[in-house]
Design goal:
The chain has helices at about 75-80, 130-140; strands at about 1-10, 20-30, 35-45, 50-55, 85, 100-105, 110-120. The two termini are about 25 Å apart. The protein contains two helices and seven strands, in the order ββββαβββα. Strand 2 (about 20-30) and strand 3 (about 35-45) form a beta hairpin. The chain is mostly beta strands. It has a three-stranded antiparallel sheet, with no helix packed on it. The chain has a two-stranded antiparallel sheet with strand order 4-5. Strands 6-7 form a two-stranded antiparallel ribbon.
């Protein structure tokens, strides 16, 4: 884990930390008349050997949009907010267990659409890896 984002929030104006950020307990005082600030940070997993991709829908039910509620283009962001990635791990590393998440989208008229996503890891056979992918993951075209 590493700190990947830092920012200041104006606590005098009741600003809140962005989602996923943590506020430090100390307040930076702006003097008698100046505003007060708090430092906030975000920790993220550092993945030096990973290739990130934008999430997309591979399968859905129902397979076609309803006339009264087309599937929003932002749904992949709810399913995989950090995107999809191809990662290189050391031999013998256990894959993380699959994770399940759910979400609710509310339309402009108050209608609700429920969604679910399963995230999992699986091995990418070497024959399906391009030269560019191998170079990005392993630093070389040959292993």
């Amino acid at each position: 884990m590493a700190i990947t984002d830092l920012c200041l929030i104006n606590t005098s104006k009741n600003e809140m930390p962005p989602r996923g950020c943590v506020k430090l307990g100390r307040v930076i005082h702006g003097g008698l008349t100046g505003p007060n600030f708090s430092l906030v940070y975000k920790k993220s997993l550092v993945k030096p050997h990973a290739i990130s991709y934008r999430a997309s829908i591979l399968s859905r039910f129902p397979p076609a949009d309803h006339d009264d509620f087309p599937l929003p283009e932002s749904v992949p962001l709810f399913c995989l907010p950090l995107g999809a990635s191809v990662e290189s791990w050391c031999d013998g590393t256990d894959y993380p267990l699959p994770t399940f998440s759910s979400f609710v989208l509310t339309g402009s008229c108050g209608e609700k659409v429920y969604g679910a996503a399963v995230s999992f890891y699986e091995e990418l056979p070497e024959r399906k890896q391009s030269e560019q992918m191998q170079e990005a993951l392993f630093g070389t075209k040959e292993r």
